[in-house]
Write a structure and sequence with these properties.
disordered N terminus, seven-stranded mixed β-sheet, Rossmann fold, binds beta-D-galactopyranose, 13 helices, alpha/beta
Amino acid sequence: MKKGFKSISLLLVVMVFATILAACGKNGSGGEVSVGIVLPTKDEPRWVQDEQRFKDALSGTKYTTEILFSQGSSAKEKENVETLINKGIDVLIICPQDGAAAAAAVEAAKEEGIKVISYDRLITNTEAVDYYVTFDSLAVGAAQAQYLVDNAKGAGEPLYLYAGAASDNNAFLFFEGAWKVLQPKIADGTFVIANSSEAEALKDKAELSRDELGKIIGQVTTNWDANEAKNKAQTHLTAASADLKGDVAILAPNDGTARSIADVFASDSAVSSFAVTGQDAEKASIQYIIDSKQSMTVFKDVRTLVTDAMGMAVSILDGKSPETTGSYNNGTIDVPAKQTNVIVVDQANVKKELVDSAYYKAEDFQNLK
Ligand code: GAL
C-alpha cells in the first residue's frame, strides 16, 4: 500500500517535470540548446575542420549550441535532428549526408517551428529549408578544370575524371563547373578522355543536363571515399593502354580522394607526370602540395562559412531576417543563399594563403618555403 503510493507520487513528479521541460523546450529562451548543428561525418578531415571552426567561433557567445555527427548515415542524422528538437533548438544548421534523404529530418524540424539552415550541401526536394550557406561550388569545379587546362602538355593528353558522391548536390555543381571548362578542350583535342565511356558519349555537349551529369558521376564517383577512389584509379590504370599513360591530367574532386588517386598514379612507371586537382586545403594535402605530390587544391575558408551560418542563426534568434546574396533551387523551391568565394592554391601561393593568413601554423608543415 505504502509502496504503491510512493510510485504514484514518483510518477506525478516525473510527469510535472516532463511538462515543465516540454514547455521550456519549445521556441523559447528556456530551451537547453538554441542552435543545433549536424555535420555529416568525422571520417573526413573537412568536417572535423568545420567542427573546430564552429567551436572557435562559438567560444564566448551567449548562445548555447550542440554539434552532432551523423557518421555517414541518414538514419543517424534523423536521430540527431530529433535529439536536438527535443533539446528545444530554435535554429538547425545541418550539412546533410545525403541531400535528398535529409528532407525528412528537416521536415520534422520545420513542423516544430524550427528554422533550417542548409550548411555547405543543399538539402533537396523539400520546402523545409529556410536558408543555405555555401561556397561557390561551380567556381570550385571551374578552377580545378582551369588548372588542368593551364598545365596541359600539348595535344592529346589523357584526362582521367573522378567525381564526388551522387547523393551530394555539390558533386553535380563541381562537375558541371569543371565540364564547362574541360569540354571545349576535349573538343579541340587538348585532352582525350581516358576512363569514362559516359563522358566520351557526351563529349560534344557543352551544357549537360542533371541526368547527363548523373550518368558521368555515376560512372566515375568516388563516393567521397579515399579507398573507393584508390580502387577505381587502380582499375583504370590496369585497363589503360600505353597511349593513355605518359603525361596525364586528373580531375580529382577533393583532397582526400586526390591523395589516394595521386598515390596510385605515382606508383605506375608508365605514367611519366600527372597534374591532379583537389579541394578543401586539408593539412595532409597542403603537405602533398609542398612535396609536389598533389598539384593544387581549392581553399574554402571554413571560418567564413561558419561566421555566415552563425550570423544567420543569430539574426533569426533576434527576430531579424538574415542577409542573403542570391538563391539556389533545390528541386522544389528557391532557397535564399549566402555564397562565399574560393581561392586556388598551389606551390606558388600556399604559404601566403594558408600560413600567412593564419589559417594554419607554419609548424604544421615540413619544408615550407
Ligand atoms: C562536399 C564539400 C567538399 C568535400 C566533400 C566531401 O560536399 O563541399 O568540401 O569535402 O563534400 O566531404
